[in-house]
C-alpha cells in the first residue's frame, strides 16, 4: 500500500514559502539545482529537486525531477508539488519489488501522479513532469509528460532526449510556430488517455544531463548559446545560475528551473539502518525516515507509514541575513487517518503546518 504519509510530507514541504531565486549545489549528486520566479510571474509554479531513496528493504536509488504547474489552470504550484510527491512516494514503495523493470516502475510512478492530480483537481489543474531515475548498478532511465525537457550534452552537441507533448512537436514543425500549436496535448492530471514517455539513457564520461522547465528551454532556439553556457561554466552551480540569468535577461516571462548532473553519475550507495528519503531543492533540504514504534516490548513500523521528517533550510545560502530570524521548533500533529502517529520535526525551516 502506498505510503500516503510520505506523499503528504513531501507535498507540504514543496509548498512552503520560498525566496524568488534559489541555486543549490548538491554534493551527494555532484550536481546543481536552481529555480527563478522570473520578472513577470508573482508565484513560482515550478518544482525541481534531487531525491535519494532508501526504502525499508535496503534498496536505494536517485531521482532528479522537474514539474511545471500549468498556468491558467487551478493552483499550478500545488499540482506540480503533488506530482513530484506522488512520483517519489510511488518509487519508494516500489523499489523493493525486484521483479518490476525500472522502466516500468518509473512509468507507473508517473501514471500514479496523473491519477492523483486528476483525482484532486478533476482536469481543472495539471503539471508537466520530467525525471531521471538512477540505480546503483549504473543504469539510468528517464520519463516525461508535457513540455519540460531532458537534454544530454557534451562539448560537441546538445541533444534533446524527451519529446514535447505539443501539437508542434508531434507534427515535427520547425521554424516559427503558431501559438496554438504550443499548447500541451498531454500533461499530468489530465486523467484518461495519458501515456508518459519512458526510455533509458546511454551516456559517456564527461557528458551532462540537464533537466529544465520551459522557462529555460525556450532558449533552445539558440541551442549553440545553451551548449556554450554549459561548456564554458567552471562547475554545475555556475551552469545552472547562468541558464537562469540568460532566461531573465531575455524577458523572464515564465518561471525558470534547471537541474544539471555531470557524468559519470556519482552514486552514494551508503545504506541507512532504516528506510528514508532525502530531498534537495534550490532552497533547502528535507529528510524523511521511518520511525520505529515500540509495541509490547518490540519495535515495528506503524502500518499507516509512521515517519519522521527533518527539514534543513538552506535559505542562508541565498540570503544569509534572514538566517538569524529563523527559529527551531517541534510540533506533533495528527491530521486524518493518514497522519496518525506522525511526528514532524522542523529545524530552521518553514514547513506549513
Brief digest:
The chain has 353 residues and is an alpha+beta fold. It is 23% helix and 29% strand.
**Uncertain spans, ≥5 residues at pLDDT below 50?**
292-307, 313-353
Number of strands: 18
Question: Order of strands in the sheet with the most strands?
Answer: 9-6-5-4-3-12-13-16-18-17
- Along the chain, the helix and strand elements come as HEEEEHHEEEEHEEHHHEEEEEEEE
For the report, how would you describe the main beta sheet?
10 strands, mixed
- The dominant shape is globular
The total domain count is 2
Rg for CA atoms: 19 Å
Q: Strand share of the residues? A: 25-35%
Per CATH, the superfamily of the largest domain is PPM-type phosphatase domain
Structural class: alpha+beta
CATH fold descriptor of the largest domain: Phosphatase 2c, domain 1
Mean pLDDT: 79
Q: Quickly count the helices.
A: 7
Task: Write up this protein.
This protein is α+β, with helices and mostly antiparallel strands and 353 residues long. The protein has two domains: 4-262, 4-Layer Sandwich (Phosphatase 2c, domain 1), CATH 3.60.40.10; 288-347, no CATH class. 23% of the residues lie in helices and 29% in strands. The strands form three sheets. A ten-stranded mixed beta sheet has the order 9-6-5-4-3-12-13-16-18-17, covered by helices on one side. It has a six-stranded antiparallel beta sheet with strand order 1-2-11-10-7-8. It is globular. The relative contact order is 0.19. Residues 30-263 form the PPM-type phosphatase domain. Residues 323-334 have a biased composition (Basic residues). It comes from Acetobacter pasteurianus subsp. pasteurianus. Pfam families: PP2C_2.
